[in-house]
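Memo to structure team: turn this sequence into structure tokens by end of day. - J.P.
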Amino acid sequence: MMPELGKYAVAVLGSYAASILLVAGLVALSIWQGRRVKRQLAEVEARQGKVDV
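Reply from structure team:
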């Protein structure tokens, strides 16, 4: 179910691929930063004597 793109096929498919890679990179970066911040917060709370519930 792929539309005929003619001479623009390479440009269009390349743009789709680049967009997908960029979105995947942003998701991965967000997950990585979220885990890092969560770990840092746990360390600060541990130093303050708080218990994880």
